[in-house]
Amino acid sequence: MKESRPDAALVKDIQARMEKKVRENEIAVIQHWKERIDRVAAMKPEGIAPLQLEIKKISSMMDNRIGVLKKESS
User: What's this model's pTM, rounded to 2 decimal places?
Assistant: First the structure.
């Protein structure tokens, strides 16, 4: 069975909107984590321990977010 033109156009429109939304979400996520990493990069720590602590905090935040997203998708 062949799709009619309006149905094909609708599918293309929906796909384009979904792809745009996915890109926007990806940009927002990358911006968020870049800001966190930029803050760590701007630190003037007195030794490596404070820097390691900040990196561990970011890693923990990412783990938590991954866990939330996995729960939401199941």
Answer: 0.68
Residues 6+ apart with CB under 8 A from 54: 39, 40, 43, 45
| 9-41 confidence digits (pLDDT tens) | 899 999 999 999 999 999 999 999 999 999 999
**Residues 5, 10: Cα–Cα separation, whole Å:** 9
Q: Could you state, in order of their start, the residue ranges of all structural domains in the chain?
A: 5-73
- Residue 46, classed as helix, strand or coil, is coil
Distance (Å, whole) CA 63 – CA 73:
15
Contact 26, 33 (CB under 8 A): no
